C-alpha cells in the first residue's frame, strides 16, 4: 500500500510540466536581471559592492607594497569581508535587491502582470529569488574577486607566490563561498520580509540588530542567524576590537560543511514559507 | 473542479477587505458572449473581476472559469486575459518589449511570441508606437497596449475593466468593433464600463451590482421586464401621433406621452405592457392610425441602471 502511494506520488511529481517551469523561470530571470542590473536605482548596490574595490585601487596606485606588509594586507582583506561585506555591504545590497522583487513591484503597481501570466506563483517566486541572487552574486562576487586581485597585485612576485603557491586561492574560494551563502541567506530573509511587510526596512534593521546580539544568545537561537553560519567559513578570523567587537560573532565551533548545510537548510525553510505566502498574495495596490 | 465547462461560475462568493464589504454572497453563471458589469463606483465590479482572475481571493465561496481556478495558473491564464484598470507598467519598456515579455512567459517560442505580439498590435492599431517606451504613451495608447497584452495570447475569456476609458470616439468605436468580433468567435467577454450606451450595443447580458450585491442579471430585455414597478416606455412611429396618444390615454395604464422631436412618433409610458399592446392592436385594426414601428424605448442598460441604482451611470 505504502509502495503504491509512493509510486503514485512519484508519478505525479514526474507528470508535472517541469520543462515549461524551467523555461518560464529562465525567462523570468532574464527579465529580472535586466531590471536589477541596468536601472538607475541599482547605483546604490554598485556603490555598496565596489566601494572597497575603489579604496583598494587607490591603495594600490598610491602606496608602496613591501613584502613584509603582505600579512597585514591579507588581514585587511579578511576584515573587509568579515566586517564590511557580510555585515553591511551584502546585507544592505540584498535588502535593496530582494525587497524590490515583490514589494517594489507592488509599489510600482506592476506585480499584477506577473500574477496574470500562466506561471505558477511558486515558480514566479523562486525565479525572482534566483534572479535576485544572481544579481547580488554578479556584483558582490566580482567585487570580491577584484578586491582580492588588487590586494595582491601590488606585491609582485611575493603576491603571486602567496596566491598561486600559498593559501591565496583557497582563501578566495572561501570568500566567494561566503558571499554566495550571504547573498542567498539574506536574500531569502528579505524576500520573505518584503512579502510580509509593507516596509521591510525597519524589520531589516531588527535583523541587523539580531545578528549583532546573536552571539550572546543560547546556541539554539544562534542557529537562526545568517552571520553565525558564515563565521565558521572564514579562512582568517579577525578579532573585533572597539565598535567592531559588536559586529564580531563568537559562536560555538562548527565544521565548515555543517555551517554551509545549516545555512542552506535555513534558506530552504524560509523559501518554503515564502512559497506558501505567495499563494495567498492579493493585489491591493490602494493599501500600498 | 477539473472538468472543462464553458461558464464563469461564482458560487455564493463573498469578499471582505477587513471590515469593508467588497461583494456579498454573489452567485452567478456567466455563459459565453458579452456580459456587462454595471454599477456605480465602489459597487464591487472590479472586485468581481479580480476574484475571477485570482488577484484577490474570496473570503468565502468558490469561483471557477471554464472549470479552472487561478491556482492552476499554467492552464488558467492561457484561457484568460485580463485588462485591468491599473494604469501602470514595468519601467523602461517599449510596447513591443512589454508584449514580448508577457508572451514569452507562456512558454512559447520567440518566433510565435513575435507573431502574436505583432498581431495584437495590429488589432488595437498601435503598430507605429510599439517601438517607443510606454512612459511616453498617452492615456489612450496605454489603454490600447494593455488591451493588446490581454488579447495577444488568444484567450477564451477576456475580462475588461473600464476598457473604453481614455479612448477617443474613434478608438472607442474600434474597440467596440473588436469586442464584437471577439464575441462572434465564441469568446467570453466580461466588461465593466461607465459608457453604458456604447457598451449596451454589444452586450448580450448585464449584471447590475450596487453596494457589493447583485441587484439584477440576465438578458437586458428580460431584466427590464422584471422591473415591474417602473412604467415601461415605448416609442411608436405613426402618421398621427397626437391622435394615438389621446386614444391611449382613454386607458388607465398609460401614464405619460411625449411627442417625438420629428413629430412622426410618440413616446408612451405604460404601467401595464400587456394591456398596452392589446389596445394598440385594437387601434391598428380600427385603421385610425397607420403604425409604422413599435419599439421599447427604455430597456437599455442606462435606463435599467437608473431605475435600479438611481444614478445616470455617467463617470464620476
Biggest chain-to-chain interface with counts: A-B, 29 and 30 residues
Structural class of chain A: mainly alpha
Distance between the termini of chain B: 40 Å
What would CATH call the architecture of the largest domain in chain B? 3-Layer(aba) Sandwich
Tell me the CATH topology of the largest domain in chain B.
Rossmann fold
Q: How many E-type strands of chain A? A: 0
- In the residues of chain A, how many domains can be counted? 1
Measured distance between first and last alpha carbons of chain A:
50 Å
| β-strand amount of chain B | 25-35%
Low-confidence stretches of chain B: none
Tally the beta strands of chain B.
13
- Individual helix count of chain B: 11
Strand arrangement within the widest β-sheet of chain B reads 5-6-7-3-8-9
The helix content of chain A is over 70%
Rg for CA atoms of chain A: 21 Å
What is the mean pLDDT of chain B?
86
Structural class of chain B: alpha/beta
What's this entry about, in short?
The complex is a heterodimer of chains A (288) and B (316). Helix content of chain A is 76%, strand content 0%.
Characterize the structure shown.
The complex is a heterodimer of chains A (288) and B (316). Chain A is built from 13 helices and no strands. By secondary structure, chain A is mainly alpha-helical. Chain A has one domain. Chain A is globular, with a radius of gyration of 21 Å. The N and C termini of chain A lie far apart (50 Å). The model of chain A has no long low-confidence stretch (mean pLDDT 88). Chain B is of the alpha/beta class and 316 residues long. Chain B folds into two domains: 211 residues, 3-Layer(aba) Sandwich (Rossmann fold), CATH 3.40.50.300; 84 residues, Alpha-Beta Plaits (2-Layer Sandwich). In chain B, 35% of the residues lie in helices and 27% in strands. In chain B, the strands form three sheets. Chain B has a six-stranded mixed sheet, sandwiched between helices. In chain B, β1 and β2 form a beta hairpin. In chain B, α3 packs across α4. The interface between A and B is medium-sized, with 29 and 30 residues.
Amino acid at each position: 500500500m505504502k509502495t503504491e502511494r509512493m509510486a503514485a506520488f512519484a508519478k505525479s511529481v514526474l507528470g508535472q510540466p517541469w520543462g515549461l517551469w524551467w523555461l518560464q523561470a529562465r525567462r523570468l530571470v532574464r527579465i529580472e536581471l535586466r531590471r536589477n542590473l541596468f536601472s538607475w536605482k541599482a547605483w546604490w548596490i554598485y556603490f555598496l559592492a565596489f566601494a572597497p574595490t575603489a579604496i583598494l585601487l587607490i591603495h594600490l596606485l598610491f602606496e608602496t607594497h613591501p613584502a613584509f606588509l603582505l600579512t597585514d594586507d591579507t588581514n585587511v582583506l579578511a576584515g573587509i569581508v568579515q566586517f564590511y561585506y557580510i555585515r553591511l555591504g551584502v546585507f544592505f545590497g540584498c535588502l535593496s535587491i530582494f525587497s524590490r522583487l515583490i514589494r517594489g513591484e507592488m509599489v510600482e503597481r506592476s506585480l499584477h502582470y506577473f500574477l496574470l501570466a500562466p506561471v505558477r506563483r511558486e515558480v514566479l517566486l523562486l525565479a525572482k529569488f534566483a534572479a535576485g541572487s544572481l544579481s547580488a552574486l554578479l556584483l558582490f562576487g566580482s567585487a570580491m574577486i577584484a578586491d582580492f586581485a588588487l590586494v595582491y597585485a601590488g606585491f609582485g612576485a611575493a603576491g603571486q607566490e602567496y596566491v598561486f603557491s600559498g593559501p591565496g586561492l583557497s582563501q578566495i574560494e572561501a570568500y566567494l563561498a561566503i558571499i554566495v551563502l550571504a547573498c542567498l541567506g539574506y536574500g531569502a530573509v528579505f524576500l520573505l520580509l518584503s512579502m510580509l511587510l509593507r516596509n521591510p526596512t525597519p524589520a531589516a534593521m531588527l535583523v541587523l540588530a539580531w545578528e549583532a546580539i546573536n552571539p550572546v544568545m543560547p546556541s539554539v537561537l544562534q542557529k537562526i542567524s545568517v552571520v553565525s553560519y558564515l563565521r565558521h567559513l572564514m579562512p582568517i578570523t579577525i578579532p573585533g576590537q572597539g565598535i567592531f567587537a559588536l559586529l564580531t560573532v563568537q559562536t560555538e565551533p562548527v565544521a565548515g560543511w555543517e555551517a554551509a548545510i545549516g545555512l542552506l537548510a535555513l534558506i530552504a525553510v524560509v523559501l518554503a514559507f515564502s512559497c506558501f505566502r505567495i499563494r495567498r498574495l492579493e493585489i491591493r495596490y490602494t493599501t500600498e | 473542479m477539473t472538468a472543462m465547462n464553458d461558464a464563469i461560475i461564482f458560487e455564493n462568493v463573498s469578499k471582505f477587505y477587513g471590515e469593508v464589504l467588497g461583494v456579498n454572497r454573489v452567485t452567478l453563471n456567466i455563459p459565453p458572449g458579452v456580459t456587462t458589469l454595471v454599477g456605480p463606483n465602489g459597487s464591487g465590479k472590479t472586485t468581481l473581476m479580480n476574484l475571477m482572475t485570482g488577484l484577490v481571493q474570496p473570503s468565502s465561496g468558490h469561483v471557477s472559469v471554464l472549470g479552472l481556478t487561478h491556482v492552476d495558473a499554467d492552464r488558467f491564464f492561457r484561457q484568460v486575459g485580463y485588462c485591468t484598470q491599473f494604469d501602470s507598467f514595468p519601467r523602461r519598456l517599449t510596447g513591443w518589449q512589454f508584449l514580448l515579455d508577457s508572451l514569452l512567459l507562456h512558454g512559447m517560442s520567440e518566433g510565435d511570441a513575435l507573431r502574436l505580439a505583432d498581431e495584437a498590435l495590429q488589432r488595437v492599431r498601435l503598430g507605429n508606437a510599439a517601438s517607443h517606451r510606454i512612459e511616453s504613451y498617452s492615456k489612450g495608447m496605454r489603454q490600447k497596449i494593455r488591451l493588446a497584452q490581454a488579447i495577444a495570447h488568444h484567450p477564451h475569456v477576456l475580462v475588461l475593466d473600464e476598457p473604453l476609458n481614455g479612448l477617443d470616439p474613434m478608438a472607442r468605436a474600434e474597440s467596440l468593433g473588436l469586442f464584437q468580433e471577439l464575441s462572434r468567435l465564441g469568446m467570453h467577454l466580461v466588461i465593466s464600463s461607465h459608457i453604458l450606451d456604447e457598451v449596451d450595443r454589444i452586450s448580450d447580458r448585464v449584471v447590475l451590482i450596487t453596494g457589493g450585491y447583485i441587484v439584477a442579471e440576465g438578458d437586458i430585455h428580460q431584466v427590464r421586464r422584471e422591473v415591474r414597478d417602473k412604467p415601461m416606455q415605448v416609442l411608436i412611429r405613426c402618421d398621427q401621433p397626437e391622435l394615438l396618444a389621446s386614444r391611449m390615454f382613454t386607458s388607465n395604464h398609460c401614464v405619460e406621452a411625449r411627442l417625438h422631436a420629428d413629430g412622426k412618433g410618440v413616446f408612451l409610458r405604460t404601467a401595464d405592457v400587456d394591456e398596452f399592446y392589446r389596445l394598440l392592436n385594437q387601434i391598428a385594426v380600427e385603421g385610425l392610425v397607420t403604425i409604422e414601428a413599435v419599439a421599447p424605448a427604455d430597456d437599455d442598460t442606462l435606463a435599467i441602471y437608473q431605475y435600479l441604482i438611481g444614478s445616470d451611470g455617467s463617470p464620476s
